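Example (one chain per record):
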Amino acid sequence: MHAELDELAGLRTGRVRLAAFPSALATLVPLAAARVAAEHPGVELILCEAEPPDALSALRNNDVDVALVFEHGDPPQRDLRDTTMTPLLDEPLYMVTPADRAWDGPRAELATYADTRWIAGCERCREHLVAACGRAGFTPVVEFETDDYVAVQALVAAGLGVSLLPGLTLLANRHPGVRLDRIPGMRRQVAAAVYGKPPASQPAQVLLDALDATLSEPEWPS
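Predicted structure:
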């Protein structure tokens, strides 16, 4: 028992389970996981894909140790009781439009696309879009529904509509047939959640530190 405690104290061994949404798994997580493997080779990192509501449920059920989640609004829309949140990243949001199409209004204003078909995720996933368009004076007509950000860009490039995507999705994949226009004032907040009050377990803290260090690297896009 003493040997096992000594190993944990020195973090020669350990395990941390992470649930993360797809665009984080395609961008931030691999870099942070490589850092953990290099600096703490005895720590086992287990990854699974989950959208924020499912990731938080897994966290509360003790199926994962860390959950990467995002919020579009302030105050938070999700139940964050009994969790400790570590802010990681503010992602800008971009209008995604066909690269070869012109528009009558400003390309970075949602109201310009009031009479255009939209491509968006499931009803739960597009709540922020519907709310933002409502503030701009219209209800978006969503004719194509998909949560696959690669498919979204392909549909836009084909001229089948426009979309709104956060920065990590575009870092993970950028279709050459789309144009991106950053929407002023619209951002998505990404955070890491652990269950309970600080401090986090040592393996979980190693992962949190790796995520933070990765985002602090000069080559990480701002």
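Caption: The chain has two domains: 2-90+189-216, 92-187.
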